[in-house]
Specification:
By secondary structure, the chain is an alpha/beta fold. Helix content is 19%, strand content 35%. The chain has three domains: 2-88, Ubiquitin-like (UB roll), CATH 3.10.20; 102-191, Beta Barrel (Elongation Factor Tu (Ef-tu), domain 3), CATH 2.40.30.10; 202-325, Nucleotide-binding domain of ferredoxin-NADP reductase (FNR) module (Rossmann fold), CATH 3.40.50. The protein contains seven helices and 19 strands. Residues 101-197 form the FAD-binding FR-type domain.
Length: 329
């Protein structure tokens, strides 16, 4: 069954399937609703429900609040139409068309252990899916069980690779970790705006834990395209212990191919004789980047780490336009 989704003031009408969120249907129809995280954390996709009824997939989403309910503001990424629906956007909320968001069946072809409880998952899709390095996909791991993971490989093939960690209390991560080669899931992409700006200038990439995936993809992009930013490029990768630095060999290999790029590994619990930095990524930024306002930052990792880096850069008066990050956890 389908419902009609109307977007005002554009007057665009789209058929939305029962299983689709408002965001999914709109992006499939070429309407560029704003979005960032795709799972209800950032609130970037809030729109006004003019009429009709929707079902909220994730009532406990961090961005859901009583004030929005009183104003009929809904999360497009977590709302499904259960009748014909009309939504309204505010002036200037979006204007340009976006790349088509697609949904495909994918087969798990390979799983590689990278670090304790961290694995690289390689999925094969029916046909190549276009995306930009740094973007992410939503993996449908069960009924109403959707999780976001960044691609760590480059586009241009039928392969999508993700780096993910299994958490004892993580429902989604346990389902993903339990998949065996040959398993089939549905993957939706691309999402995210934390992608490489190819303009010249000072670049700083900051990764924490499995946040290495989008940083690795962007460094591979820079290497493959033989980009020379004409300025130093710093890649800071933090983890709890040296063993937790997943994919650092692949990251170092990509960095070695980018002019003026250097790699700094930093761990919280440094063993005796550890040749690199100890502490947190914020410590490394303070000691490594003399003038943060002169750099463009790309940040990916656990929400606490991303928040700490953003706070540090804000206190250093780095313009928000120079900070790009993932907003999902």
């Amino acid at each position: 069954m389908t419902r009609q989704l109307r977007v005002e003031p554009d007057g665009v009408a789209i058929d939305a399937a029962d299983h689709e969120t408002i965001l999914q249907a709109a992006r499939r129809g070429g309407v560029a609703l704003p979005y960032e995280c795709g799972w209800g954390s950032c609130g970037a996709c809030k729109v006004t429900l003019v009429n009709g009824q929707v079902d909220l997939i994730f009532p406990g989403a961090p961005a859901v609040n009583p004030r929005d309910a009183r104003r009929n503001r809904i999360l497009a990424c977590q709302s499904r139409a259960i009748s014909d629906v009309t939504i309204a956007r505010g002036p200037g909320e979006w204007s340009a068309p976006v790349p088509r968001c697609v949904e495909q069946q994918a087969i798990l072809r390979d799983v590689v252990d990278l670090a304790p409880e961290v694995r690289q998952f390689s999925f094969e899709t029916i046909e190549p899916i276009d995306f930009r390095p740094g973007q992410y996909a939503i993996l449908q791991l069960g009924v109403d069980l959707r999780r976001s993971y960044s691609m760590c490989n480059l586009p241009g093939s039928n392969v999508l690779q993700f780096i993910a960690k299994r958490y004892d209390d993580g429902k989604g991560s346990n389902v993903l970790a339990g998949l065996s080669p040959g398993a089939r899931i549905t993957i939706e992409l691309p999402f995210g705006t934390c992608t490489l700006r190819r303009k010249p200038g000072r670049k700083v990439f900051v990764a924490g834990g499995t946040g290495v995936a989008p940083i690795l993809a962007m460094m591979r992009e820079a290497a493959e395209a033989q980009l020379d930013f004409g300025s130093p490029v710093d890649v800071i990768y933090g983890a709890r212990t040296p063993a937790d630095l997943a994919a650092d060999d692949m990251l170092e290999a990509a960095i070695a191919r980018v002019p003026q790029a250097r790699y700094l590994a930093v761990v919280e619990n440094a063993p005796s004789g550890w040749p690199h930095a100890a502490g947190f990524v914020t410590d490394a930024i303070r000691t490594t980047i003399a003038d943060p306002t002169a750099a463009e930052f790309y940040v990916a990792g656990p929400p606490v780490m991303v928040g700490a880096v953003k706070s540090l850069l804000r206190s250093a008066d780095v313009p928000i336009t120079q900070v790009h990050y993932d907003a999902f956890g």
